[in-house]
C-alpha cells in the first residue's frame, strides 16, 4: 500500500498533490483480449514490468487467464482507492474486472502477491440480469462508503440502458441498482462523482447490439448512439439533468472532473464529434457544457467515409489539474493541452503513433483543415505500430504517459485488421510537465504480438498504487 507517512491511513493518498509525490510505477496491469482475434483462448490479465532498473523491464511477467471464453475484458477499477483514505480498515487489494460483452465481473486478488494476481471471486451475468436488469458493465469506481459502483451500457437484450450496479466492497455480492427505479439513462458508458458538489456525471456510447460487431454510421442517424451527459444527485440518486451535446458532441466517452475535490468543472471527450466539452456548474446551481477543443475531420479517399474524424477515445487530466491529454485513435496522434485557462485549452504537445492516414497507407488526405502532413509509419525496435493510440495512463508525477492501441475487439477488427493479426502494443511517451511537450521513448515497447498463445489486444492500464483515472478524492 503506497501512502504518505501518517497514522491510521486508508488506501491511496490524502490529496492529488500528495499522490504526485508517490513512488514511481514498477508494474502495471492490463486486460488482454482474444475475442474477435480468431484465437479461442480466454482473455487474461497481464502484469508488465515497467521498472527500468529491473532485469525483466518491458516484459509480461505474469498472465492470469480467466476461466471463460469471449468475455471481452475492458476497463478495471479498485475495491478501495483514495476515496477511502480516511478508513484504515480498507486496503487496495482487489482489482475489479468487468467483462463488456459477457457481462461477467471478475474480482482479482492483487494484494497477496501483486506481481502474480489470482482470481478471488466471479459475479455471474445472470446475477446482473436478474438483480439489476442490466448488462454490459463498463466503468468501476470504489466509493467512500466502501461499496463499488459499476456503470452499465445495456439491458440483457442488448438495448441501450445507462444504469449502475452496486457491489458490496467486502463480499462483492450485488446489492442492487444505484439509480432509482425507471431513471436509468438511454445509454451508458463512463461516470465520475464529486461528493462535495453532490453530483455525478455519466456519459453515453451506444446500444450494445449496435456496436458489438463494429461501427455502422447509419446507426448514428438511427439513434443507436448517444450524445448526452447526464447529471445525477449524488445523495438522492435522482437524475437531475440531461445535457444534449448535439452532433458536435456525438458519442461522449471518457469523463473527468478536475481532481481538486471541490472543483465544479471537468471535461469529456466526444469520439465521433472529435471534440472536448467542458462541463461546469452555473451560478444558478445547475450544470451546463461548452465546446472548448475541436479536432477537425479530414477529407479523405480510400476510406469508408469521405471524411475521417479524429475519434477521441480516451482523455485524462494530470493530478495537478494543469494538463489534459487525449488520443485520436483514427488520426493517430496524442495531444497535450495546457488547461490553466479552463475555457481556452492551449495545445502544447503532440505526437503521432500510427493511425489510419499514414503516408504509405491506402488512405489519401485530400483536405486537412490543420494543414498537417500525413505522418510516416511509426517503427519501434523494428516493430511497425499497427492501430492508433487509444488507452492512456499518466504516471503519478506526470512525466510518463503510457499508451496502448486496442479500443475494443469488434472495432479493432474493422478499422485495424493488421493489429488483429500482429497484436497491440504498449508504448511510453516522455512528457515535459513544466512547459508542455511530448516525445516517444524509443527504448520502451511491450509487444503483445509475441504472447505465448498468439497476438493479443491489450487495453486499459492500472498501477497497483492508484492512478489519475481511478482515484477520486472526497
Automatic annotation (TrEMBL):
Q: Which domain of life is it from?
A: Eukaryota
Keyword Lipid biosynthesis tagged: no
Q: Which InterPro entries match?
A: Se-bd
Q: Where in the cell is it found?
A: Nucleus; Cytoplasm, Cytosol; Membrane
| UniProt topology in membrane | Peripheral membrane protein
Query: What terms describe the molecular function in GO for this protein?
Result: methanethiol oxidase activity; selenium binding
Q: What does the UniProt keyword field contain?
A: Acetylation, Cytoplasm, Membrane, Nucleus, Oxidoreductase, Protein transport, Selenium, Transport
Q: What would be one Gene Ontology cellular-component term for the protein?
A: nucleus
Name of the featured protein: Methanethiol oxidase
The species is: Parambassis ranga (Indian glassy fish)
Organism classification? Eukaryota, Metazoa, Chordata, Craniata, Vertebrata
Gene this chain is encoded by:
selenbp1
Amino acid at each position: 500500500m503506497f501512502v504518505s507517512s501518517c497514522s491510521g491511513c486508508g488506501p491511496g493518498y490524502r490529496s492529488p498533490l500528495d499522490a504526485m509525490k508517490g513512488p514511481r510505477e514498477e508494474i502495471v496491469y492490463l486486460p488482454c483480449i482474444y475475442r474477435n482475434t480468431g484465437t479461442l483462448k480466454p482473455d487474461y490479465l497481464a502484469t508488465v514490468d515497467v521498472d527500468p532498473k529491473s532485469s525483466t523491464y518491458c516484459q509480461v511477467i505474469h498472465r492470469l487467464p480467466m476461466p471463460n471464453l469471449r468475455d471481452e475484458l475492458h476497463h478495471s477499477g479498485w475495491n478501495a482507492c483514495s476515496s477511502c483514505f480516511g478508513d484504515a480498515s480498507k486496503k487496495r487489494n482487489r482489482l475489479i474486472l468487468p467483462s463488456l460483452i459477457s457481462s461477467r465481473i471478475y474480482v482479482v486478488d492483487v494484494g497477496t502477491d501483486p506481481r502474480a494476481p489470482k482470481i478471488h471471486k466471479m459475479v455471474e451475468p445472470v446475477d446482473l440480469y436478474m438483480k439489476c436488469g442490466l448488462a454490459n458493465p463498463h466503468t468501476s469506481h470504489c466509493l467512500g462508503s466502501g461499496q463499488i459502483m459499476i456503470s452499465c451500457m445495456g439491458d440483457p437484450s442488448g438495448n441501450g440502458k445507462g444504469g449502475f450496479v452496486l457491489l458490496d466492497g467486502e463480499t462483492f455480492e450485488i446489492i442492487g441498482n444505484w439509480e432509482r427505479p425507471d431513471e436509468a439513462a438511454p445509454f451508458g458508458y463512463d461516470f465520475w462523482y464529486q461528493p462535495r458538489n453532490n453530483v455525478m456525471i455519466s456519459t453515453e456510447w451506444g446500444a450494445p447490439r449496435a456496436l458489438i460487431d463494429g461501427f455502422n454510421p447509419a446507426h448514428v442517424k438511427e439513434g443507436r448512439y448517444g450524445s448526452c451527459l447526464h447529471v445525477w444527485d449524488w445523495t438522492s440518486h435522482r437524475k437531475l439533468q440531461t445535457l444534449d451535446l448535439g452532433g458536435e458532441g456525438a458519442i461522449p466517452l471518457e469523463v473527468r472532473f478536475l481532481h481538486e475535490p471541490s472543483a465544479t468543472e471537468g471535461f469529456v471527450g466526444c469520439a465521433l464529434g472529435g471534440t472536448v466539452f467542458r462541463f461546469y456548474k452555473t451560478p444558478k446551481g445547475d450544470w451546463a457544457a461548452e465546446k472548448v477543443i475541436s479536432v477537425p475531420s479530414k477529407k479523405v479517399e480510400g476510406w469508408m467515409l469521405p471524411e475521417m474524424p479524429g475519434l477521441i477515445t480516451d482523455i485524462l487530466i494530470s493530478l495537478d489539474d494543469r494538463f489534459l491529454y487525449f488520443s485520436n485513435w483514427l488520426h493517430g496522434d496524442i495531444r497535450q493541452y495546457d488547461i490553466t485557462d479552463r475555457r481556452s485549452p492551449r495545445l502544447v504537445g503532440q505526437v503521432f503513433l500510427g493511425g489510419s492516414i499514414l503516408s504509405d497507407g491506402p488512405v489519401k488526405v485530400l483536405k486537412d483543415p490543420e494543414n498537417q502532413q500525413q505522418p510516416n509509419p511509426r517503427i519501434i525496435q523494428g516493430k511497425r505500430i499497427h492501430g492508433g493510440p487509444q488507452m492512456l495512463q499518466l504516471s503519478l508525477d506526470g512525466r510518463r504517459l503510457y499508451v496502448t492501441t486496442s479500443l475494443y475487439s469488434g472495432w479493432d477488427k474493422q478499422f485495424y485488421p493488421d493489429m488483429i493479426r500482429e497484436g497491440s502494443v504498449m508504448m511510453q511517451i516522455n512528457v515535459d510537465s513544466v512547459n508542455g511537450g511530448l516525445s516517444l521513448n524509443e527504448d520502451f515497447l511491450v509487444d503483445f504480438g509475441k504472447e505465448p498463445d498468439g497476438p493479443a489486444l491489450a487495453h486499459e492500464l492500472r498501477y497497483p498504487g492508484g492512478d489519475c483515472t481511478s482515484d477520486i478524492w472526497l
